[in-house]
Design goal:
This protein has about 450 residues and is α/β, with parallel strands linked by helices. Strands 2-1-3-4-5-6 form a six-stranded parallel sheet, with helices on both faces. Strands 7-10-11-12-13-14 form a six-stranded parallel sheet. α12 runs parallel beside α13. The N and C termini lie far apart (about 50 Å).
Length: about 450
């Protein structure tokens, strides 16, 4: 029985694809192992969205090449966004790769494994990236209580700086009955938090049903009896309407946490980015959310240094972050990606982009510090995820912390078990982390 090691890089949506491939491999009778050393085949499911992600993927590929030279790994398959973006070019640049599987060909992973084990030739698998998503099982890798629930693939927003449509294809919603069936199966298996993900969940159903259908889907998910938390990633600001805001405000199972990537606040910069709406539209939306949903936690992403961003544009962005007090934000210096309209603009000043990103991070750090301090003395529900030996505390996440991006809550108490929910009173903030005690 061949031994297969899967390494998943990048975003939550990519992890879902890894989990699907793991299920296919297991169903085919292959042995799944956690260490590439001693494996017959290592599969790296890559991200290729921005330069840092490409560098990470390349580093992993080169490391696997070293394992092959040492004789402790036989074959290497590269899948995912980097594979789709560069295709057969990867064979020329990195001869240690034995097969490349594009984002439209995850369902061919068994054929890819069989091909590399039976031959020393190079193999490329590239099916239509715009084809409807195939429904298949998953082996969940995120623990016993929470899992991602992907509701769509691809993107049709065509932002000027983004390569996703050319890598992942146009926006394709999964059928609602398939999503709800998967959610029910996950809850029946013990999962209590489902994180609804897609490149843009607010457009769910527009391609399949001819109208926005996210609210209808969320109502179906809320009706699942033992499901406790529903978290939403990612909502585009121009598509967040009153119906959705009311549903989030009124439905207890939907966490008061919304990830809404805005990228900028200056209207001229938004236009250059090919984003819909204006800076005032974003301001009005965030003000409405805070008014209608008390204690809401907002997350966003910001790009600094797009070509054409003036000092006035940047100062407007800094001022907005100070006033809007968005509790969570990822800040990135602009990086030109070949094949995008933004890459055809004037050459960006990388030093300026990096410096502006650092300044934005400093602004955002003060906002996050203020938010953390405001939580002292409050009580919140925490999903326990384990015990931290260094601090001597249990740790977990509340509604305000999404996995892998927002940190954790540390707490003490008696009779604590991982993967269970507890009421925790926050008593202090230490190095940016809330500390508390079980109530």
């Amino acid at each position: 029985m061949a031994k297969i090691c899967m390494i998943s890089l990048g975003c939550a949506k990519n992890l879902v694809n890894s989990e699907q491939m793991l299920c296919m491999l297991s169903d085919a009778g292959l042995e799944l192992v956690g260490d590439p050393q001693g494996a017959d085949v290592a599969i790296i499911n890559t991200c290729g969205f921005i330069n840092d992600a490409k560098v990470e993927a390349i580093d992993y590929i080169l490391y696997m090449g070293q394992l092959k030279e040492m004789g402790v790994l036989k074959k290497l398959i590269v899948t995912g966004c980097l594979a789709q973006r560069y295709g057969d070019q990867l064979f020329e640049e990195m001869p240690e790769i034995d097969a490349v599987v594009g984002t439209g060909s995850y369902n061919q992973i068994i054929q890819a494994v069989a091909a590399v084990l039976q031959s020393n030739d190079k193999f490329g698998f590239y099916q239509d990236i715009n084809a409807p998503e195939e429904e298949c099982g998953r082996i969940i890798t995120t623990g016993c209580r929470w899992a991602y629930l992907k509701i769509a693939e691809g993107c049709s927003n065509n932002c000027a700086y983004c390569v996703i449509p050319s890598i992942r294809g146009k926006y394709r919603s999964r059928p609602m009955d398939a999503i709800v069936s998967e959610a029910k199966a996950l809850v029946a298996s013990g999962y209590r938090e489902l994180i609804v993900v897609a490149q843009d969940i607010t457009r769910y159903g527009t391609d399949l049903y001819g109208k926005k259908s996210l609210c209808k889907l969320l109502r179906e998910l809320c009706a699942i009896e033992d499901l406790k938390w529903i978290r939403l990633h990612y909502l585009y600001p121009e598509m967040v309407d009153d119906e959705l805001i009311s549903l989030v405000a009124e439905e207890e199972k939907i966490l008061k946490y919304l990830d809404i990537p805005i990228q900028h606040i200056s209207t001229p910069v938004l236009k250059r980015m090919n984003r819909r709406g204006t800076g005032d539209d974003i301001r009005n939306l965030f003000a409405k959310l805070k008014e209608r949903i008390p204690n809401i936690v907002l997350r966003t992403s910001i790009i600094a240094g797009l070509p054409g961003e003036t000092d006035e544009d940047f100062e407007e962005l800094c001022s907005f972050l100070r006033k809007a007090k968005i509790q969570r934000a990822g800040v990135f210096p602009y990086s030109p990606e070949e094949g995008t309209p933004a890459a055809e603009m004037e050459r960006p000043d990388e030093d300026v982009a990096k410096r502006r990103a650092e300044l934005l991070f400093a602004v955002q750090f003060d906002v996050m510090d203020e938010f953390n301090n405001s939580r002292i003395g409050t009580t919140t529900t925490v999903l326990c995820e384990g015990f931290d030996e260094e601090s001597g505390c249990w740790y977990g996440r509340s509604y305000a912390e999404s996995p892998d991006v927002d940190g954790r809550v540390l707490f003490t108490g008696e009779d604590i078990e991982p993967d269970e929910f507890y009421e925790v009173r926050i008593t202090e903030i230490n190095c940016g982390e809330p500390y508390g005690e079980r109530v």
